[in-house]
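Figure S4 source data
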Amino acid sequence: MNEFELIAELREDVGKGASRRLRRDGKLPGIVYGTDKNVNMIMFNHNEIMHHLEQEAFYSRVLTLKIGKTKEKVVLKDLQRHPFKRSLLHIDLQRVDEEQALTMRIPLHFINEEKCIGVKQDGGVISHLMTEIEIVCLPKDLPEYLDVDMLEVGINEALHLTDIKLPEGVQIYSTLHGGDEAQPVVSVHIPKVSAADEAAEAAEAAEGDEGVDVTTESADASTKEETEPQDSES
């Protein structure tokens, strides 16, 4: 299991102008808060954070934040990206208390999709209605992801929140707060024919019908010529 250590520096110069200057210098402004400690304004090496983001586990793992000689446990709570450039604008981290439950968004991994009964036997297609869910657990129980097994899902069937196997100590946030436990997560259904496909099929059918008519008329004409009596020369 990879461990992530984030090296940060404190920053005192705040505001939009200060943040723009930091970004021009290759820094990423951020903030860390939580566990009844002071909110700290911090900054990171932008490219180092970008490198970490290439690994899915970074989003759902307890991270180590190092500021000077001080280390503390944190989780990623928010990330602001540039609207069209491949760059970051701001990062929010939350301190972790080992005795307090965390609320985190965790990715779903859909396994056995190629062996799914509804796909393999009936030619169905899989629709992912969710790709992540929000869970509640203590930091020590935090999973990197949750598996959703598609093996036994038939055509026109779905898996729901209640079908997700949760590790011990992990609960789904929405069901704890009165949400719908039967909310679908993924389904297998018959492929829908697109409007373009329907138009193409209709055109092919029309061409086929027209060809039949022409052939029939031609045959009728030929038969007529052969059966009609011809004037004989006197």
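Figure S5 source data
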Amino acid sequence: MSQFFSMHPETPQVRLIQQATNIIRQGGVVVYPTDSAYALGCQLGDKKAADRIRRIRALRDDHNFTLMCRDLSELGTYARVDNAVYRLIRSATPGPYTFILEATREVPKRLVQPKRKTIGLRVPAHPIPRALLDLLDEPLMSVTLQMPGDEFPLTDPYDIRDHLEHEVDLVIDGGFCGLEATSVVDLTGPEPHILRRGLGDVSDFEAA
């Protein structure tokens, strides 16, 4: 049965952040709030935890995970970013955007999109994942918490606990997150390509 932590959405309790980080480091799968919707996350290199997330979400083996990064310098470790792309990303982070970029060798091969060699990366604005990332000292491997067949992500932490208490190790209650996912922008080509319009103003990428 999963643990359930109620965290303050603006000033998360240090003790609970430390406990949550320990659960992740020990191979746990966690549900946590973001500045868009709730997400499922696990440690970057943990194949068993990633496979559990794939099973919960009924994802194909080639589904792209998103690496939740704490800042742009960390993002640059896991993706190839030239100066023009860096300026675009800098203007939109932290925030509710997922960027598709060419992966570096730092990204585990099984997480890279097999044909295009890309990875999704994101720098969240929400204080809870930012606190987790600061303590973890590496990205979180994440996907939006949208169950198979559902039109929208799960948004109520108590409903999430009822649905997943035997599937995940921790549910972090950070309040209501909303139903809309991030905007997804592909920055691997000569011009930005908007793959999904969600939260976040994408006009800068259209005009770029």
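The chain has one domain: 3-198. Helices lie at 14-25, 47-57, 72-78, 83-92, 127-136, 157-164, 203-207.
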